[in-house]
Design goal:
The chain has 71 residues and is mainly α. Helix content is 68%, strand content 0%. It contains 3 helices and no strands. The radius of gyration is 18 Å and the shape is elongated.
Length: 71
């Protein structure tokens, strides 16, 4: 996942402007929560470095290829 709802950010449903507005209002009024989200996002940023992402893709492709060979 890129964002875990309520942990390092907020998610809202597609075209759900009411939910989006509610969560935006929460962020605008809660500095402590904003700082917590920022800190958690910084902690996770290394997971999205190009080398790590490319390795995850390689592992997934290898897993799929191995499954096809076994079937």
């Amino acid at each position: 996942y890129l964002i875990k709802d309520g942990v390092d950010g907020f998610l809202s449903g597609i075209n759900d402007t009411a939910e989006f507005a509610k969560k935006l209002e929460i962020l605008m009024s809660d500095e402590k929560l904003r700082l917590e989200f920022c800190q958690k996002a910084r902690e996770r940023k290394s997971e999205f470095e190009p080398d790590k992402i490319s390795q995850k893709w390689k592992n997934l492709i290898q897993k799929v290829m191995n499954k096809d060979i076994k079937d």
